[in-house]
Amino acid sequence: MRQFSSMLNGLARSLRGNNSGNDDGRETAEVKTKDAKRNELILRSSGSVNVDGSNNFASVFSKRGRKGVNQDCAIVWEEFGCQTDMLFCGIFDGHGPWGHFVAKEVRESMPSSLLCNWQETLAQASIDPDTDLESNKNHERFHIWKHSYLKTCAAVDRMLERHKKINSFYSGTTALTIVRQGDLIYVANIGDSRAVLATTSDEGNLVPVQLTVDFKPNLPQEAERIIQCKGRVFCLHDEPGVHRVWLPDEESPGLAMSRAFGDYCIKDYGLISVPEVTQRHITGRDEFVVLATDGVWDVVTNQEAIQIVSSTPDKAKAAKKLVESAVRAWKKKRKGIAMDDISAICLFFHTC
Fold first, then answer.
1. Which pairing describes strands 72-78 and 286-292: parallel, antiparallel, or unpaired?
2. pLDDT in tens, 255-265
3. Which residue range or ranges hold the PPM-type phosphatase domain (predicted)?
């Protein structure tokens, strides 16, 4: 608690004496990003992250599907923002002709933008007489992270629209991210990737807890918003059960998710880039969380996923084992259908 109070006081002092505000915060975030890269605290490819003294162990793996270039990408950032008790991880699933560029751009810009907005929001809260960060710490921390995520995602989407080298009009990406701060995790989801927690039941069995909603266009609240905005939701004849978002007067773009960055051709017709943000307290019963793109969840159940991960002796190979299992499931369950890109992050909460 003393460390948290000290951090608040430092942020408050910097905010009071900072006339340029967000510019300085952004510079600080960029410096911390460069430090993390130099100290090998950021992983952007298949592999694992295990920092001495950390309670986290992360395994990452991605495999290209049969549709062209791999449009999935991921990131794990230990000691997020130079905070030893924080970790950021995210998985991004691009789509459209520029989807792989969009996904990588969001992966590069979102963490530092979130860090900047979190520091700014935290500093503002520390000098707000109506905010009591000490007596109701978890409640206030959640609202600070939620506000920071909402601000970040809106800024990232605006940045993409103005980007001179990436055409996001008919391309976009989902984004599923987690911040672990001590014994709390904050989950923010845009799109149809999914986070599943593995926890131990009262009977001693490992059971899955789905932490996110797959934002598909046929979900009642999503379909209602799209229809109210004059967009359309329906399945093609050769894809029964696959609901997509369409423009009012043409069969385009046919997005299979209701939330995404980019895709400006349909942003006025119900597609949004607003994340659902939730939090969860991690206990001794919670073993790990799996973040994976829909290439996994299209063919693997939540229960199967946590069983595959938990039965892998080498944690560093857990994500690869899950992805390879999904590849086999695609060949068995979806014959004749081009396999999607398949990516996963397995974040373990206990390193021993």
1. unpaired
2. 999 999 999 99
3. 57-349
